[in-house]
Amino acid sequence: MPDRKGRLEGKVAIVTGAGSSGPGVGNGKAAAVLFAREGARVLLVDAVLERAEETLSMIAGEGGEASCFQANVINAGDCARMVDAAVERYGRLDILDNNVGISRRGTVVEVSEEDWDHVMAVNVKSIVLSSKYAIPRMIESGDGGCIINISSIAGLRAHSSTPYTASKAAVIGLTMSMAADHGPDGIRVNCIAPGLVYSPMVAPRMDDDLRRIRQNASPLRTEGDSWDIGYAALYLASDEARWVNGVTLPVDAGLTAVSPVTYQTLSQQQYQQPT
Ligand SMILES: NC(=O)c1ccc[n+]([C@@H]2O[C@H](COP(=O)([O-])OP(=O)(O)OC[C@H]3O[C@@H](n4cnc5c(N)ncnc54)[C@H](O)[C@@H]3O)[C@@H](O)[C@H]2O)c1
User: Fold this and answer.
1) Residue 110 and residue 170 in contact, taking contact as beta carbons nearer than 8 Å
2) pLDDT tens digits, one per residue of 96-147
3) pTM recorded for the entire structure
């Protein structure tokens, strides 16, 4: 059998929000671990260094190569230093996973100006700033590059949080615009819209009943986790996706493919039919 090379062998990746906000594995951590498993050297960026260090110990334990960098990606200076650090440590930059994101609840009537600005800064401006410094270095490396923006199905359908939905819809628009602008430089820009994933980010708000409701809402009727999102990021980061550009990929067990009212009604009728 020929030697199996990793799907990201020789590549250098930055993952923002590479730690997890609670125990377990979140979307950023899963992507970072999978990138490293497939041969990438990964800069693990997080505002909370200890969280990135947990991801590092997982990667190091598997024999992968990574290092931590503390940054708040809503600051231009931090984003510039983050990109410089990746290139100084590893010699090039190929992949940027813009994973950082937060939520604040509220309608337009309820949301404070401060919360609105903060969600927009963390979820949207961080992508602009990180990409602003990353793209020129990707171009320098001569092989193009790949950017993955993490949105949410909340960017495709109204959710229970106006600032979150608005910011995640902006990420989808940003993705298309970046893909159009930087495609000629060989830089692919794609987006993942995670569905109702059970992850450290949402776990504190979940009880068993809510988890079951979320699980049964989608056609697959199974619960997704952050590895599902990480594997989608891995595909988009790999050369297997070399002709995929400007797309938003829902990873949601089919939830956004269905019309809620008819789907729920038909499902109930189906359950009532004698077998
Ligand atoms: N159920 C879900 O988990 C779900 C569903 C849909 C979309 N998403 C999206 O997935 C992404 C995050 O997923 P996760 O599971 O990795 O989340 P997480 O909360 O577990 O981890 C995110 C990490 O980002 C870091 N962070 C937050 N703000 C930062 C900043 N300004 N600068 C640097 N680091 C910062 C945090 O310290 C944390 O370690 C977000 O964009 C989120 O909106 C998640």
Assistant:
1) no
2) 999 999 999 999 999 999 999 999 999 999 999 999 999 999 999 999 999 9
3) 0.96
Residue 246 lies in a domain: yes
Q: Whose CA is nearest to atom 5 of ligand 1?
A: 194
CA of 58 to the centre of ligand 1 (A): 18
Say if 7 falls within a structural domain: no
**The CATH number of the domain where 43 resides is what?**
3.40.50.720
Q: Decide: 49 in ligand 1 pocket, CB within 6 A.
A: no
Whether residue 2 is contained in a domain is answered as no
State the residue range of the domain holding 97. Answer: 12-272
Alpha-carbon distance of 109 to 104, in angstroms, equals 13
State the total domains in the chain. 1
In a domain, 132, yes or no: yes
Nearest Cα to Cα of residue 126 among 181, 84, 78, 87 = 78
